[in-house]
Amino acid sequence: MPDLSINFAGIKSPNPFWLASAPPTNSGYQVMKAFDAGWGGAVWKTLGVPVVNVSSRYGGVNYRDKRLIGFNNIELISDRPLSDNLREIEEVKKRFPHHAVIASLMVQSRQEWHDIVRASQDAGADGLELNFGCPHGMCERGMGSAVGQEPNVLRTIVEWVMEVATVPVIVKLTPNISDITEPALAARQGGANAISLINTIQSIVGVDLDQFSPYPIVDGQGTNGGYCGPAVKPIALNMVKNCAQHPGVQLPISGIGGIENWRDAVEHILLGASSVQVCTAAMHFGFGIIREMTSGLEQYMREKGFQTINDMVGRALPNVKHWEELNLHYKVTASINEQKCIGCQLCYTACEDGAHQAIRLNEGTRVPEIIDENCVGCNLCSLVCPVEECITMERRDDGTRHETWQQRTLAGNIPSEFEDERAGGRHHWVPEPAAALGKEKHKTLPGKARQFETVPASPQIVSE
Amino acid sequence: MAEYSPPTTEQEFQVNFAQLKPRMNRTEAMLESSRCLFCFDAPCIQACPSGIDIPQFIRQINTGNVTGAARTIYEANYFGNACGKVCPTEVLCEGACVYNLQDVKPIEIGRLQSFATRAQMDSGEALFGPGTPTGRRVAVIGAGPAGISCACELRALGHEVDVFEAKAQPSGLTVYGVAPYKITNEETLAEMAYLQGQFGYTVHYNAPIASRADVQKLEADYDAVFLGIGLGSTSTLGLPGEDRVGCVGAVEFIEQLRQQHHAVAVGRRVVVLGGGNTAMDAASESARMGAEHVTLAYRRSKSDMGAYDFEYDLAKGVGVEGLFNVAPVEITGNGKVEGVRFVRTATTGGQVQPVPGSEFVVPCDMVIKATGQSKQTVFLGLIEGLQLDAKGRIILDSRTGQTTNPRYFAAGDAGNGGAEVVNAATEAKVTARGIHEYLMSLK
C-alpha cells in the first residue's frame, strides 16, 4: 500500500495535495471543509495589510465547449481582519492537528514582517509562505511580484523573516520574470526552507467585443490580472524543472500551476515537486476533486511500485536535457494504420499547410499516404489525428549511432554554411513554390451549389 | 398494442407528434459544434445534394458567428431550416460523417443547420436581397421547394417573379407532405415568410394553372415559365373495393393530417400498403393518432423495401407491425372498409408471384395506399412541345433545367420523378441559373 504522506521541508501532511493560497482558503469554514473532504494541507489566503476589492474579479478562457481552460483574477489578498483569520487558523489546527496549515503572508516593513510571522506562528501555522508573486494590485504598492522580480529585495525580506521564523518558510515565486532560478537562488541565499511556484502570470484573458473592455469588467473598464488554470501547466512545469535542476537552488519545491487531476500532480512531482498546490480546479469543481486525485495518485504509485512520494520526486529530471544533448541520429517517420483511419484527412492538410508536404491523397480512397522520403518525423500528423493509435511514429534508424550537437561541436564537426553537406537544409525536400497555386480551390465550392453541370443523384423516395 | 391515445386537443397532438429533431439550445449547439473535426474536402459536403459547406458553418456556430453560419447554409440551399429537419441526414451528411467509421455518434449536422437558420429567421435580419432589375419576368408554377427556391434565385439575379400556387399555403411537400414529427407548419411557413420578405417575389395562392387558356396567358405575360409542379395524387391500384369509404391515399392522408391535426379521423385498425418512406410515415402517423393496430403490408421482403432503415425503425418504434410478401387483392367491406384480402407472394427471379390458395383477410377499418404518386401528365399535355420520358418525367437539360419547349424550365419531382426536398431545392437553384442564361440571351 503506497504511503501518500509527505514531509515537506519539515511540514507534515497526510498527502501531497494542498490548496493554494487563494479564495478557497479564505476562511476556516472552507479549510475545514476541504480537510474533511480529504485535502492534505492548505495555504491560507494571504494575510497582510488592509485592502479593498472590486467586482467583478475573475475572467475565464473558454475553449470551444470547455469552460475555464484558463482563468484569471484581479482579486487582492485577504480582505478579512487579521485577527479573524488567526483565530480561525487556530481553530482549524485544533481540529486537524496532522494536516498542514500554512500561512501566506504579504506585508512591507521589517517590523510588519516580524509581527505577522510571530502572530501566525502563535496561531499554530505549520509553515509560512511568503507571497512574492501577486502580479496585480499589490505590486503597485511595492509588494507581491514587485518583490518577486527583484532578487535582492526578495533575499532581504526572506532574511527579515528568518530572523523570527520558528516554522519552515516557503518562498512563493512569480513567473513574471525571465529566469525563475534567479529569485529561487535569492530565496535560498536568504535562508528560506523551500520554494513554491508558480504564482499567477500577468495576463489579459480576453476582451469584451461589445464593451471594448478587458475581462473581468469593472464598470466598463478592466486591468491585467493573474493567469492560472489548466492552460498554465506547461509554463509551470518548465519553471519547476528549472528550479529543480539548478545545482544552486537545492530546496524542496511545492509545485503549483494547472493541476486539475492526479496526472497533472504526478507530472509536477516527476519534475521535482514534493508537494503540489491546487486552486483553479477547486474553484471550478469544488473540494470533491480531491477524491479522484488521491485515488489516481495511489493507483499510479501501486502500478509503478513507488512506496512513497519521495521515490517519485524528480524521476523525469535526468531525461530533461538541453537541445544540444539530444541524439541527432534518432529517426522516426509517420505511419498510418489504414484499418483505423476514418478519412478526415486532417493529417493531410496539417502536413501540407503546416509542415513538410509529406502526405499525399490518392484516387479512390480517403486514407492518406505518407511519403516516407519527405517525412521529417515532426509528429504534427499524429498530433492532429483524432483516432487513437492511427498515426504512429515509427523508428527508422538502427539505434547504433548516437551523436549530439554538443559532441559534434566538440569534435569540430559542425557545418558553418548552408552549402555544407552536413547542413540540414540540403536534405530537406520542398516542392516548387508554383506547385501551390490552385491547390486551395476545393473540389467543393464553399457555399455554392457544388456542381451546376450535374446535380448528383440522391436516394429516391421509393414507392410502388 | 396502442401506445398513443387518440389526440383530442392541439396540445395532445403536439405531444404525440413531438419533433424528432427538436431545436438545439446554445449550449447544445456549442457542445455539438465543438466535436466537428473540420475534415479536409469533407465527406459530409460531398454527401449533401446542395453542397453546403458544412464544416464551415459548424465552425461559424462554434465561434459565435451564427449569422455567418446561416449565410453559408442559405447560400447553398434556400430551404436551409426545413432541410435540417426533413432531410434524411442519416443517409446523407450525417451518414457520411467520418465519426461513423470510429463507431462514434456522427455530428448532428441537421440540427445544427436548423439551429443557425432558425436563429437567423428569428432575428428577421435579411441576408440577401433582390438583384438589379433586368426587366424580365418569370412565372413559377408551384410554390413547393423547387418553385420557391427558383423564385429566390431568380429574384437574386434581378428578374421579376410571380409564383402560382394551387393550394392556400407555400412550401409544398414541406407543409403538406412531410410527417408532422419532422417539422411543424409554423416553422415551415416562417421560413417561407422569411424568404419572401427578403426576395420580394409574389405568390398567387389558390391559383391553379389548369387549362390551355391559363397556360397561354402565362406565355403571353412572361418571358419564361418554371414548372415546379411536383407529383400528382396517389395512383390507383385498380383493386376491387378501392373506392370504399376508409380507403385513402397516403399523400392525401398526410396532407389532411398536416392541416387539421387532431381533427383527422383515423381508424382503429389501419393497414398501410407500400414499402417506401411515405408508407413508413403514414404507418407511424396512424399509430401516433392512436390507432390500436397498424399493419404495414409490403409485397416483397423487408430487405427489399425502398424505405430507409431508420424510417422503418421509427415506425416499428411506435408499434407498427410489418407484414411482408403479401399483395392486396381486394378491399373488402360493405360500403365501408372492413378488411384487406391479401395473397401471399413469392419472389422468383425478381418477379413477385402470388402463391395460389394462400389468400387471407386482415380485418381493418382504414386502408392507406402509399403506393406511389401519379405524374401530372394531363396538365403537362397542355404545354406545346413539352416532352416526357417513358416514366412521365419531364425531359430536361441537366445543366440548365431547360425543357424541350425552350421557354419552359423544370426541376424537382416533376423532373426527377420524386426525391428529397434538398434535391428539389438544389435542382431549382441550378435551373434558375439556366433561366437567367436564357433570359439574358433574349434580344
TrEMBL record, chain A:
SUPFAM superfamilies: 4Fe-4S ferredoxins, FMN-linked oxidoreductases. Residues 332-361, 366-396 form the 4Fe-4S ferredoxin-type domain. GO terms for cellular component: cytoplasm. Its EC number is 1.3.1.1. Gene3D superfamilies: 3.30.70.20, Aldolase class I. Residues 436-464 are annotated as: Disordered. GO terms for molecular function: dihydropyrimidine dehydrogenase (NAD+) activity; iron-sulfur cluster binding; metal ion binding. InterPro entries: 4Fe4S_Fe-S-bd, 4Fe4S_Fe_S_CS, Aldolase_TIM, Dihydroorotate_DH_cat. Keywords: Iron, Iron-sulfur, Metal-binding, Oxidoreductase. It holds the Pfam family DHO_dh. Involved in pyrimidine base degradation. Catalyzes physiologically the reduction of uracil to 5,6-dihydrouracil (DHU) by using NADH as a specific cosubstrate. It also catalyzes the reverse reaction and the reduction of thymine to 5,6-dihydrothymine (DHT). Belongs to the dihydropyrimidine dehydrogenase family. Heterotetramer of 2 PreA and 2 PreT subunits. This is dihydrouracil dehydrogenase (NAD(+)). It comes from Hymenobacter sediminicola. The lineage of its organism: Bacteria, Pseudomonadati, Bacteroidota, Cytophagia, Cytophagales. The gene is preA.
From TrEMBL, chain B:
Signal peptide: none annotated. Gene3D superfamilies: Alpha-helical ferredoxin, FAD/NAD(P)-binding domain. It holds the Pfam family Fer4_20. Residues 27-60 form the 4Fe-4S ferredoxin-type domain. GO terms for molecular function: iron-sulfur cluster binding; oxidoreductase activity. PANTHER family: GLUTAMATE SYNTHASE [NADPH] SMALL CHAIN (PTHR42783), GLUTAMATE SYNTHASE [NADPH] SMALL CHAIN-RELATED (PTHR42783:SF3). This is FAD-dependent oxidoreductase. It comes from Hymenobacter sediminicola.
